[in-house]
Design brief:
Layout (H helix, E strand, L loop, with lengths): L9 E5 L10 H9 L3 E3 L10 H6 L9 H13 L6 E5 L1 H11 L5 E5 L12 H11 L8 E2 L3 H7 L6 H11 L3 E2 L1 H7 L20 E6 L7 H11 L6 E6 L12 H14 L20
Parallel strand pairs: 1-2, 1-3, 3-4, 4-7, 7-8
Antiparallel strand pairs: 5-6
């Protein structure tokens, strides 16, 4: 008598600002091959393609962190089992919030956006955010990088040709409200950028990037340290030569293999899920 195979574990991918959900396609294909059940939903108001998003930039405007988190929580409630959540940039912050709310069994946060209590603010981060934060009227609007600013602050660790190709394929206008909320989180009593850092929850892996100018490695390291206040497992890794686009550029597979290896070690995948991952940095002091 054969024993039925267990149902595949759902995985929910959450992108951040300025990327379309289709940027997760290589990850979705890889995780499907490895026996998971992955989905990569867009943010509220996001059109099916990056081209359609660019044609109607205000369709996503004025949506804050709570609205986006609730959107993904509602999608998760319809899944057959509690998922793993993998997020990049503001998607990493959303993933951390979902785990803290008990909506996920594990979280992988790739260069996660700053949450309340994270006081790291490297100069590179200020320079990248300044074009938006210096224009308060953008709080309720959407905004998209130019190809020049994209290469300078988002895909700075790859060549210009690759940066432009990524822009053409995936760059979209995004609501700027989350960026303003994160920037003022430490001065806001009930900030939507808060994360349940003390909750007893599933394992978390925080991944930083050494050349990241949007969420510098120091900011990701600070998030890791704060998340260790939970009794749950919290791990750290970094890619020293990567920029903020490492989840979608030519280094994406290294990040994906690292994620698969982490999940396998914590009983949420098979040993065959592990690829050749970049070595993790020692845990920050």
């Amino acid at each position: 008598m054969s024993i039925p195979a267990p149902d595949p574990i759902p995985v929910v991918f959450v992108h951040g600002l300025w990327l379309h959900a289709s940027s997760w396609t290589p990850w979705v294909e890889l995780f499907t091959e490895r026996g998971y059940a992955p989905v990569a939903p867009g943010w509220p108001g996001e059109a099916p393609t990056a081209e359609e998003c660019r044609a109607d930039p205000e369709a996503v405007a004025n949506r804050g962190i709570a609205v986006v988190t609730d959107h993904f929580a509602a999608l998760i409630s319809e899944l057959p089992a509690q998922p793993i959540v993998i997020g990049h940039s503001f998607g990493g912050l959303i993933a951390e919030k979902l785990l803290g709310q008990g909506c996920a069994r594990a979280c992988i946060a790739l260069s996660p956006a700053q949450f309340k209590g994270n006081l790291a603010l490297p100069p590179a981060q200020l320079r990248t955010a300044f074009p938006v934060l210096s224009r308060p009227k953008l709080r309720t609007r959407s905004w998209i990088h130019s190809k020049d600013s994209w290469h300078a602050g988002f895909a700075n660790a790859v060549g210009r040709a690759e940066s432009d190709a990524l822009y053409d394929a995936y760059a979209v206008p995004s609501p700027m409200k989350p960026l303003f909320q994160a920037a003022t989180a430490n001065f806001t009593l009930h900030s939507e950028a808060s994360v349940g850092v003390h909750r007893d929850r599933g394992p978390v892996l925080v991944v930083g990037a050494g050349k990241d100018r949007t969420v510098p490695e120091a900011t990701s390291r600070a998030a890791y340290r704060i998340l260790t206040r939970s009794p749950g497992v919290t791990e750290w890794a970094a890619f020293p030569g990567a920029g903020h686009s490492f989840a979608v550029d030519s280094t994406w597979r290294e990040a994906a293999d690292l994620a698969l290896e982490f999940l396998a070690r914590h009983g949420m995948g098979s040993a065959s899920s592990a690829g050749t991952a970049a070595p993790a940095d020692p845990a920050p002091a």
